[in-house]
Amino acid sequence: MNQLGYQAHQKTCTTILVGKRATIDGSTMIARNEDGGDEPNPQKFVVYPANTAGTVYESGANHVKIPLPENSFRYTAKPDADDSFGVWAGAGINSQNVAMTATETSTTNTRVLAADPLVDVGIGEADITTLVLPYIKSAREGVTRLGQLLKTYGTYESNGIAFSDQEEVWYFESIGGHHWAAIRIPDDAFVVAPNRFNIDYFDFNSEDTMSSADLEQFITDHHLNPDIDTTTPNLRHIFGSASDKDRVYNNPRAWYVHRLFAKDATNEQPEDQDLPFIVYPKKKLSVDDVKFALSSHYQGTAFDPYEHEQASLKYRPIGINRNQESHILQIRPNMPTDIAGVHWLGYGPNTFNAFVPFYVSVTTTPASFEKTTPTFDVSTSYWLTRVIAVIADKDFATYQDMQARFEQQIVADNVNLQQQTDQAIQAGQTVDLESVNQKMADNYMLAANTLLGKMTKLGTKKMQLRFSVDD
């Protein structure tokens, strides 16, 4: 398959999910870094309109054709700037205030793949958001629809997908070519999911789990459960991996976020293969907390590559040069429908960007976030942020405080604008949300350009190609 599609998208991601009673404001949050290869894969932010005419979807990745329902909902999405290899819509919120992020590339084992092989002409990351998000009215409906699609068409890869609405957060993992399991995240819990099969203990009789109809029998028929105690099946043991790569590539990411937020993670170690999936926080989490985690590189530990030169060889960080875009999809309680959903978005390596809280009840998005070009153009947010990251990464100690001040100020400015907008709409005033989004984007571009200018000025003084005498 094409190099851009199947390789650039499948390498890496990190997902964070937070239930409504674990957040500071009662919102649900599903978040993910969409990571790719070491080269840029430009992203754009768009709104797809509602559609009343059914059609046939054809994947740009493998040309599988799937008939679509007649009626669809409007939704935000984050596709590739270059759609030559498919849409790769990635994540968004629809007009029913249902959020979806797809996908977290996961792992499986040979026992599963032998029993239910992957399907070359099935659905995958390039297709899943487009096939599901426009047609669902709740997070549970998202699980059901995706499960039906997997049963009918199969998949060519292993993935994790998250859904949320105002009440619930669900995590869905594909299993082999046609099977799947999904679990509702407890309202008072959070989850961090790196690139491995993540769901552990699973009660097939619970109202808070769903799976393919024959999953229990599938486990039995193919002798997939390695555990001696099978009272409560551990799906990670049954379907997932516990490889040397997991020890250094996946597990440390979960360990670090647990270290930041978990009520009790004192006995956890970075390479543990059995880190818990469902975790309870020691405090209520905010958007800022989730953004920090998505930007993290093991700060405060011996594994931070910016503090310890050899640390970069040890564990794969969450904030990384492979971050192409990152989002926090927030569905807020006690808000009018038009402003309940917020699509927080940032481009490029998270350690050097800031997220913008875009309203989703709109028909267009700001040009600086939508009109991303496949080739370099610093007038767009994606490329401007990546330039900042490339410069700052080379001398992190010099630019760290400067970047932190930039992020704090631009987020404060945009959240202040968001709060004013919320209050006006709650008071019955008519507000043009597209204009508000435009103002937020303009604020970001101005602040980022100002930051780049300051970095250039400071960096010029530190260039090696200089001389102490002038005239």
UniProtKB/TrEMBL annotation:
Coiled coil: none
Known catalytic reactions: an L-aminoacyl-L-amino acid + H2O = 2 an L-alpha-amino acid
Keywords: Dipeptidase, Hydrolase, Protease
EC class: hydrolase
InterPro entries xrefs: C69_dipept_A-like (IPR047804), EF_Hand_1_Ca_BS (IPR018247), Peptidase_C69 (IPR005322)
Annotated TM spans: none
PROSITE patterns: EF_HAND_1
Known EC number: 3.4.-.-
Classification via Pfam families: Peptidase_C69 (PF03577)
Sequence similarity: Belongs to the peptidase C69 family.
Protein's recorded name: Dipeptidase
Classification of source organism: Bacteria, Bacillati, Bacillota, Bacilli, Lactobacillales
